[in-house]
Structure formats: structure tokens, C-alpha cells
Amino acid sequence: MVGPSGCGKSTLLNLVGLLDRPDAGRLVVAGTDVTSFEAQRAAMFRRDHIGFLFQDGGLIERMTVADNVGLPLAYRGASARERVGRVGAALERVGLLARATSLIDELSGGERQRVGFARAVVAAAPILVCDEPTASLDAENARLVSDLLVERAAAGAAVVCASHEPGLIARANHRITLSFGRVVETHP
Amino acid sequence: MRGIGHVLASACWAFGARPARSAALVIILAAGVTAVVFTASVVAGFAAEIDRLAFGSYARALVVRENAFVRDRHGPPRLSEAQALAREVPGVEATAAWVQGRSQAYVRGETIQFDVFGVTGRYSDELDTPVAQGRSLTSEELGGDRRACLVGADLGQALGPAGRVGARLSVQGVSCEVVGVLGEPRSRPATRFRNAVVAPFLAASRYFARQPDRASAEADWITLFMRPGTDMQTAEMGADLVLRRLRGVPLSRPSPFAYGDPAASLSQQVEQRDLVTRMLLAVTGLTLVASLLGFAAMASASVVQRRREIALRMAMGATGGHIRLQLALEMLIVGLIAGIAGLTCGLGAAALSARFWRWPFAAEPEVGALAVGVGVALGLFVGLVQGGRAAALPPSLAARL
Q1: Is the pLDDT of residue B205 over 70?
Q2: With an 8 Å Cβ cutoff, are B401 and A56 in contact?
Q3: pTM of the predicted model, to two decimals?
Q4: How many CB pairs under 8 A join A and B?
Q5: Which chain A residues contact residue B2 at CB under 8 A?
Q6: CA–CA gap between residue B134 and residue B149 (Å, rounded)
Q7: pLDDT tens digits, residue range B35-48?
């Protein structure tokens, strides 16, 4: 999703991620009509279907890297052994297994975003919602995160991304342009 | 609900993650609990001291006398009945049997009148006066008829050398060895011993306070000292049943004995004590309300500070129930720690004040339960309210920087 600031990219992402409710219209996510989902059902839908990657990583401060990554699994009721295994695998994938016991406050911006990515994919959610995932990163880290997103899409997940980053936009296989809250262009 | 274990772990994490905030929450709630514990302890200790000053040992004593108003007289209570009462009435801690008479002595050509008390059993509670010179009556003396006696402070002064330790005092024409001189009474009822002689029961009833129509084993009154918390009415009924059985008096007839609870009649002191208690409770109530308001405000501010964390948890799949439970558990932990801290501080302050003002220090188990209960209840209440607020936050806050 591309478009100027204030065009509604984040609002649309929040709707797709069931973080907000639409005022009007119908919302269908992964084939399910979620328009009338109340808070409890929306939470369970998010838990089972959606991973989030926020602009700043969206990590909880004063918590360890491993605990942050394990949050989606914890709310799914995964056992401690399962969590350790899957969190380890996700961190290994982003090259941060050695930082598993570090506190979030000790990480650089790029590391935070990679931890955020590990958390977004740890539960193998079929939808990955990303809001400006590379906006606050240097070129090298932006490239790294882009690679991870493309890799995730190639693995079969729907990666829905709002971005201004030309490198990331260029790698999208479907692009929509928003303006003043409306889709003005789709590609292809 | 899935993820309960994680919610518990998160509550513990939240307590430790921000130690300064957690400590502030504990301190402000502990202040309220401290006030409750301090007041409860002081009220109990202060009440006990007022009781002691006003009533002495009579604060929880039952006095048994002959009922002078019944037609078929059975006579006064007997020493053997004191033992039966001690054995059979629930809650009796100790007994004392007393006989009382009036006597006079001639000193330097002057007649000095005084009371004579004969006693057996645990008399020191009722005497409630320290021995200033010499010694107390021994248990052998109390059980026999040795002519030994204690002299009250005023009487000792009036008697001069005849009232000193080792002197032989003539009471009713019978000499009695002064073994001790009493000091200042500790309580109001004990002032009656200031101008009196206290002797062993049998010695008094046979020689010094002789009553022609009275057997030597008959007492003017028997005092039953009850354990703390004993219901005096139940004790009175129990004593009456025992004595009726011993005397063969059916329940259809009037009791041959009268029972007195001397503390019950001194209502003015009780009112004064209750007034102080009410004032302390009012101050405590205000402190508790102030503490609760401060605690609730701080907990509310904490939720505002943690809006993004809460929203992030919701984005990761936490339901409103998870959030409510986590906040409630967090405040429950705070309440539990504050309760224990408040109990410790309150008891410490109460112990110090008891030492400073010289009243008994009362540390009852109910106070501990009250402290922890107040802490936990306030913590849980505030936690549930704040948990409800947190659960109502929009999860879209997670996406905002």
C-alpha cells in the first residue's frame, strides 16, 4: 500500500489487522466476514491469523527479546517447551538467537525491527500486517527486513505492507495506491 | 481461557519490571494498612490499660457472694466450692477466696481502725499493689493459718514502728507478724488495701476478722479470674449450675448466690474508652480513604503509562479477560506485599508507642488477618477497576508511536 501521509494506509492496515472496526461497509479477512466481530472474537481472530510488524518494532520495553517474541504463542496457550523451540527458531532466522536474553532497551533500531519480525512470524500466522517496517532503519537494515518479508511471502503468507520505501515497494507483487482514503490505482 | 499461565507470569513481570513504580504503589497502600494495624493494636492495648486502671483485675473477673435476699439461706460460699468452680467452670484462669472484717489497734495511746482481709488462692491480681518492703505471703502461708500479714501503705505510716517489717501487730488482741508493707495501688479497686491488713484466709477468719456465726472455711466472696475472651454471662451461668448442684438447689428456686461483674457497672470509664476508640477509628478511616485514593490514582496513572504495552498485548492476541486478569493480579501482588509490610510497620509502631506510653502491647492474630485482608481487598478492588479500564483501550494504540 502506497500513498502520501494521511491517505489512510495505516487505517486500512488497522482494519485488516482487526485493530480497528469499520464505521461502514463490509470487511472480509482471509475469507471471513469480520465486520461484526466484537472485541473478544476479534482478539481470537488476531491471535490465530495475524502477525504484526510495526514501524518501531512495537516491542515491550524491559522485557527480554525471547519473551517479546514468544508473546503470540503465550496467548495461544503454547507450552513452555514449544515456545522455547519456536522462539529459538524465529530468532535464529533473523540472526538474533544470541540476543535472546537481552532486554529490548539494549537493542539497536535494526535489531528491534528484526525482533519484531521474529515475533510477527513466530506463530506462523497466515497474514502479516506491516506498517512502515523499514521507515526508521538504515539502508542495510531496511534491505535485511525487506528480504525477510519477501521470504515470508514466498513461503505462502499474505504480507500486507504500508510503505514509502522504494526498494520494498519495488519487490511487492501487488500494489495499491491510496489517496484521501480511496484506492486510486492497483498494480498489477 | 488460554494463556492463563502467561498472564500470571506477566503480572509478576510487571511488578518487577518497574521497581520504583511498584515500590511507590506498595508504600502508599502499606501506609493505609499500617494505620489500620497501628490503630487496632493501640485500641486493644489502650483498652486493656484503661480496663486495668479502672477495674484492675476485675476487668475480667466474676465475684460470687452469698445471696442475702433469698429466704432459705444456704450460707456464704465455701473454700471447697472455690476449687470446684476452678475445676468445672469453663474459662476460669484462677480463683481467690476472701474474708473481710474490721479491726483496730492501739498505738501510742491512739486507736487506729482498719480493715482486715483474709485471702487464699491467687490474691496478687486482686491486691494489685506491689510489696514495697519485705515480702509477699507465701503459698504455704496462704493455705494455712500462720499469723503473718501485709500492711497497707497508709496503715503502715499510721502505725509507725508497729507497722514495719518484722514488727508484731496486735489485731483483735492476737499478735500478727508483719512480713511486708504494701506500696502504691496500681488500680482504683486496689485502693481499699491502703488502710488494711492482708492475712492468710484461715488466720484472718479464725483470729483477725472473726465472725461468730461463720465457719472458718466460709468466704465473704470468691473471685473467679476468667481467661481473655470469656463470655461473662456464660461463666456466670456455669458457676451457678455448679454451685446449685453442690448445694442441691434446683433451678426452680432462687440461686443461693449473687454474681457480680464489677467491671460491668463502671460504665463511665467504658464510655471514655469507647470515645477514644471511636476517635482513633475515625482517624484511621480517613487515613485509609486517603491511602486508597492515592493508590487508585497511582494505579490509574500506571495504566495510562502502559497504554501501548496493553495495546501491544491485545494485538498479539490477548483478550479483554487476559488484560483484566493481569491488572487484577498485579494489584493483588501489590496488595499482598503492602499488607505484610503494613502489618510489620503497624505492629512496630504499636510496640514503640506501647513502650513509650506504657500500655500493654496487643498483637492479636486477627490484626494480622485484618492487615493482609485490607491490603489484598484494596489491591484487588483497584486492580479490577483499572483492569476494566485497560481492557477497554483500543488495540489500534499498538500501531501508534
Answers
A1: yes
A2: yes
A3: 0.65
A4: 83
A5: 75-77
A6: 11
A7: 888 888 887 777 77
